[in-house]
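Rotation project, supervised by the postdoc (A.L.). Task for the rotation student: set up a whole-complex structure prediction and record inputs and outputs verbatim in this book. Inputs entered:
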Amino acid sequence: MKPIVSDEGLEILFRKARTHHTWRPQPVTDEELRALYDLVKWGPTSANSSPARFLFLRTPEAKQRLKPALSPGNVEKTMSAPVTAIIATNYHFYEKMPKLFPHNPAMAENFAKNSKMAETTAYRNGTLQGGYFILAARAHGLDCGPMSGFDNAKVDAEFFPPDVKSNFLCNLGYGDESKLFPRNPRLHFDEVCKLL
Amino acid sequence: MKPIVSDEGLEILFRKARTHHTWRPQPVTDEELRALYDLVKWGPTSANSSPARFLFLRTPEAKQRLKPALSPGNVEKTMSAPVTAIIATNYHFYEKMPKLFPHNPAMAENFAKNSKMAETTAYRNGTLQGGYFILAARAHGLDCGPMSGFDNAKVDAEFFPPDVKSNFLCNLGYGDESKLFPRNPRLHFDEVCKLL
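Outputs recorded:
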């Protein structure tokens, strides 16, 4: 039998974790963001392609650059969050393949020659890494507020070179539990799973 | 300070977890698959949309139906895995929104009327749930072998109705550590992250 994560750990990651909208004034340090990435990076990706990129907006100036792209309902919680991460995807991720997949030097060229496969790989795996990011933040004691309510094209024009595109945003900090909404129901196993 | 997952937990989830290709004969029970889903379901999705669907192939008959869709390099490890999960996406996920997002009954219709937004939401959030699935399996003591080397169209035709599409596959079981390849390097913080 493999070791399993403790019951307390499962509560932090899944059962008791909530999406937060209101933030306590406690800051998030750069060291915490580095420690967070040092967990995320280990999550599995196709051929170790690791296409996700992370931009951490910490200063009022950086937040102001994001503000015009946000849906109205996402402005206040994002402006007040200690950090807002932009989870993005590098569609030229394969340029790093010689480092990431050293035993098969042809891999970079395979992706470079097949732009449809590269695009699919980039977005699927960058999004999987987004999932790892949310759980790694929680594992590390941070609360998350992930959001897709924003104008991706505006964010891309403001923050990224042409080969990098925003995927979703995630506020990070220490949430105010007293401001949480009641938790929404989830689907039962038999509604979404099938055993064959 | 929020509680954080123990160092042992972080090793199980991230630091020491590996993608497995060779499986020990220990089976995975239906109870374990139900317990796995009961963690995955709590992961956050846009408007609690929960678009991922999970098909668990346990029997030789079910595996044989999958076999013709697999890339040659994925056949042996998949046929020998105790369970192969097909992580799929329901593009009509919004039909469940009255249950999932009960305080805003208009949400289902918003998605039904905007097929581009529904498609983007389905795929992004279904893939995030795929990330939660991999980490929840590890948290629960299972080893994973996620794969995208297969013919999605063949899998969809064989297993799913038109509104559900396969995303990726994930073998589940107890891996043979002695058969692992050396771990590939990861990108450093400064290669993929930026602090603003």
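Student's summary: Chain B touches chain A through 81 residues (CB under 8 Å).
Supervisor addendum: The mean pLDDT of chain B is 96.
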